[in-house]
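Dear Dr. L.,

I hope this message finds you well. Following up on our conversation about the binding site, I have prepared a predicted three-dimensional model of the protein together with ascorbic acid. For your records, I am including the exact sequence and ligand specification that went into the calculation, followed by the structure tokens. Please feel free to forward this to your student if that is useful.
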Amino acid sequence: FADDVEDAIEYRQSIFKAIKYHFGPMAGMIRGKIDYDPAAFTLHAERVAELAKMPGDGFIPGSDKGDTEAKASIWDNKGEFDEHLAALAENTSALLDVSKTGDLDQIKPAFGEVGKTCKGCHDEFREE
Ligand code: ASC
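The resulting structure of the complex is given below.
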């Protein structure tokens, strides 16, 4: 494969990995497996909100080939895929805003929306 395709795949996989790194501790706090720490939660929410803007750059033409779980249908339905990414950016930004209240009753539903957005896109566009 062309180097730029390999680089694009590695780039977006790294971004998703970083998102997961910050998503996990928030999930732990939401589920009560980790003590809720408002400042730590907001830092993770900040990171995810920034990272959520980034993976789209790595889905360049031709990067459906290679060591990747990305379904080829992404490139046949690019508009729809981009809408999922836009929803992720919006929902993570909303989570960041609400995280600053320190009110778990408000944070939980906002976090739930982010999780649903992750899952919705995975169900459609990621190989099992
Ligand atoms: C995770 C993870 C995902 C999302 C998703 C949320 O921790 O690896 O892909 O959460 O399961 O619904």
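In brief: The domain at 3-125 is CATH 1.20.120.10 (Four Helix Bundle (Hemerythrin (Met), subunit A)).

With kind regards,
A. P.
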